[in-house]
Amino acid sequence: MPEKSDHAFDFTTFLADKATWSIPASLEPYTCRDGSSLGCRHYSAMKVSEASQLCDERHIILIHGSSSDSRYLATLATQLATVGYHIHTPDLRGHGPAPARRGDIDHSQQLEEDIEDLITSLALSKKATLLIAGHSAGGGLALRFAADISRRQPLDISLAGVILLAPYLHYRAPNTRHDSTWATPNIPKMLLCSLLAGLGIHACDHLEVLTFNIPKQYRDSNTTSAYSWRMMQGINPQHYQRDLAMLAQHGVPLLAMIGEHDEAFHAERLGNSLLPFHEKTQLEVMDNVDHLGIATSEMTGKCIDKWLTS
């Protein structure tokens, strides 16, 4: 494990395994309600047997973490597609190869609107099952989005489950490591934006308030190195306890997974963050896995498939 002074996560091991990763599917455009076009990678389900009648009906939206894009999810997506799930990995607005404004969105609900527009573009049949999954900050967004659509019921498709991979819940959540060096907040700018937002003023929402500790040798043209105030407000859960309670109220199953060596969150405290609000959460702590590794480990796909088929 590299020293924390080098970087927050073990990028060295993560990228050393890159040669074994599956090749990402091509980005395919879909249209959002504001008329803009975003990209998503689709991995079609492969039928396991003729007896498996549900292969063409199971869909998982899998959301990437902060600063990144959907490419690193290709191995997990391919593994799940092989055993019969359609996997969709969008590049969130403000991320990916050519965003209109990197690290920024128009308003704090826009990411949720984009995911809903993606689901609408899939034109799923009423027999389809839909699950929402996410890694790290993407896990927080998955929770937030799932709770919102459970409350509003805007889609004809019912939500069959939520999968959280080392999720970011809140900086005050019991499992958050406060010594993590992954993200550096600009406290004065945050205080300014929060104060103005409380007064209904959003003139400063575009200001960059969060910078990610990404070593130069691991950056590329798709890297998003900082977030605006409204991006930070839009991707993170605002009330994770309430979101969990909403899923429990609507009977939405929840699988939460974390590596025992996670550098951003206390693995042993994830249950304390989730179970008081969603007591039927299935919690899995993966041996010898860290924060980035849980998104590429073969064990992750096997655990998800076992949960979905049990």
UniProtKB/TrEMBL annotation:
PANTHER family the UniProt entry points to: HYDROLASE, PUTATIVE (AFU_ORTHOLOGUE AFUA_2G14860)-RELATED, MONOACYLGLYCEROL LIPASE
One Gene Ontology term of the molecular function aspect: hydrolase activity
Superkingdom assignment: Bacteria
One GO cellular component, as annotated: membrane
Entry keyword set: Hydrolase
InterPro entries named among the record's database cross-references: AB_hydrolase_fold, AB_hydrolase_sf, Hydrolase_4
Domain Serine aminopeptidase S33: 59-266
Protein name: Alpha/beta fold hydrolase
